[in-house]
Design a protein that fits this description.
Elements (H helix, E strand, L loop, with lengths): L1 H12 L2 H17 L3 H4 L1 H10 L10 H12 L2 H14 L2 H26 L2 E2 L5 E2 L2 H9 L4 H17 L4 H15 L3 H16 L2 H30 L4 H14 L12 H16 L6 H5 L7 H30 L8 H13 L3 H32 L4 H14 L5 H25 L1 H32 L1
Antiparallel strand pairs: 1-2
Helix pairs in contact: 1-20, 2-7, 2-20, 4-16, 5-12, 5-16, 5-18, 6-14, 6-16, 6-17, 7-13, 7-14, 7-16, 8-9, 8-20, 9-18, 9-20, 10-11, 10-18, 11-18, 11-19, 12-16, 12-18, 14-20, 16-17, 18-19
Length: 461
């Protein structure tokens, strides 16, 4: 009965109106920023490693990106993609791509505004994110909207993406792969999270900087080898993605069939759950980056959506479609595991369990920080200790909830969190465009001076 109620609420929250608002915001920002996510992507990827890291901030830009990726690259990339394809068919992957393309412009705008309106809290740490750019950018009269965002942010961290879905995914995967008891896994994860998160952002960022690149490379290699060994099925899989996106997918095997609207809804919803573009989470940590240019951090933040969805989710989705396992009766992590088993056989439990455990663990760390910043905005710095203890208690108990209810609840709070943020992005579009223009004009002047300096040096010789 609870699941039925949650599903009904989920269908209302994730109705056509939210899809239009979410994708429409991305389209609007893409237009106003003149396809920035395409034109400036090379510079954005270069900045990941070569940003100057000058200016106020708590951590360098690479650590900020890794922390954001820690929160986004999680079960959505393995379990979320599987559930999207199982529900909406291969066409759901196309809508994930489309949402991610426009979502890159949205993520850029979020990162830009986060740095523009960041503050320093009572503990001397950087505080930023949608709650601050709503209040400081739109004005004090919009503070109720900022409060709503922070409240839903706490809900996502404590009851959605931050605890329940990730812990459940780790436990079920470890139990299926290695037969380790739920209680042991739950205790180990809770203790590790406590050790890292009580060290604050610096501790979380250091862990993310080490784990995220390693886990991304491991998963990338696993999936690329799989697709290379099954290259014959790739053309058909890609064809299914495009035909399913615009004509739906007929029922076959254990697949119930899906129309275009179902493919669209499941693809966009799971895409947001995975890359969080428009959700408003990534700018919370982007605000802490050491930079004096809001647009520079916006470009770096934008690469998070590219890495998460365009690369990692695509690899997972094509693996599932090529394997044909989406036509069976399994779903979630088990579906992805069966897909990899087509080629890797008995090695699958180890490979997938390690990948899923790393993905989910880092997501817990990232969302712990997001929730903490939202909690601090609502209740002040003195309440942070209470939040951390509450987070750990919920994390430890999350293992005993049902998967279906967890995903439904996560979808609901994700959607509700996105609404205040999207309204702010639309209202502050002029500021985003102005900051973008200022940054690229600065680069043009800097490059011209550098060119003139080199010419003078050559002339003296």
């Amino acid at each position: 009965m609870l699941l039925d109620i949650l599903n009904q609420i989920d269908s209302i929250v994730w109705g056509p109106w939210l899809l239009v608002l979410l994708v429409g915001t991305g389209i609007w920002l893409t237009f106003r920023l003149t396809l920035l996510q395409v034109v400036k992507l090379p510079r954005a990827l270069k900045l990941i490693f070569f940003a100057r890291n000058k200016g106020e901030g708590d951590i360098d830009s690479f650590k900020a990106l890794c922390t954001a990726l820690a929160a986004t690259v999680g079960t959505g990339n393995i379990v979320g993609v599987a559930t999207a394809i199982k529900l909406g068919g291969p066409g759901a992957l196309f809508w994930m791509w489309l949402a991610a393309f426009f979502g890159m412009a949205t993520k850029y705008a979020e990162g830009c505004l986060a740095v523009k309106y960041r503050q320093v809290d009572d503990n001397g740490n950087i505080a930023g994110g949608p709650m601050y750019y709503i209040e400081m950018g739109l004005g004090k009269k919009w503070k109720p909207l900022a409060v709503l965002f922070a409240f839903f942010g706490c809900m996502v961290a404590l009851l959605g993406s931050g605890t329940t879905t990730q812990m459940n995914a780790i436990i079920s995967s470890v139990e299926a792969g290695f037969g380790i008891s739920t209680y042991i896994t739950c205790a180990v994860i809770t203790v590790l999270v406590a050790i890292i998160t009580f060290g604050g952002l610096q501790s979380i960022a250091k862990a993310a900087e080490k784990i995220v690149p390693a886990m991304a490379v491991i998963y990338f290699v696993i999936t690329v080898i799989f697709l290379a060994l099954n290259a014959g099925g790739l053309p058909g899989a890609i064809s299914q993605v495009f035909t399913g996106a615009f004509s739906g997918t007929a029922a076959a095997g254990g697949f119930a069939g899906a129309g275009v609207m179902l493919a669209m809804r499941s693809g966009i919803a799971r895409g947001l759950f995975s890359n969080e573009s428009g959700l408003g989470s990534a700018p919370i940590v982007a605000a802490a980056a050491k930079t004096k240019w809001p647009a520079e951090q916006g470009l770096i933040s934008m690469t998070g959506t590219f890495i998460d969805t365009i690369i990692i989710c695509t690899l997972t989705g094509l693996t599932i479609i090529v394997s044909g396992q989406w036509l069976g009766d399994t779903n979630g992590a088990e579906l992805t595991q069966n897909a990899f088993a087509v080629t890797y056989g008995g090695f699958v439990p180890i490979l997938l369990t390690v990948s899923l455990a790393l993905f989910a663990f880092t997501t817990i760390l990232g969302w712990n920080y997001y929730g903490e910043r939202c909690w601090e905005y609502l209740f002040g710095t003195k309440s942070i200790l209470f939040y951390r203890v509450l987070f750990l208690v919920i994390l430890a108990s999350a293992a005993f909830l049902k998967l279906e209810s967890i995903w439904a609840l996560a979808d609901i709070v994700n959607g509700l969190m996105a609404i205040p943020n999207l309204i702010a992005l639309l209202g502050l579009t002029g500021v985003i465009v102005a900051e973008t223009k200022k940054y690229f004009e600065h680069l043009e002047i800097r490059d011209a001076k550098l060119k003139a300096y080199k010419a003078r040096r050559i002339g003296k010789r």
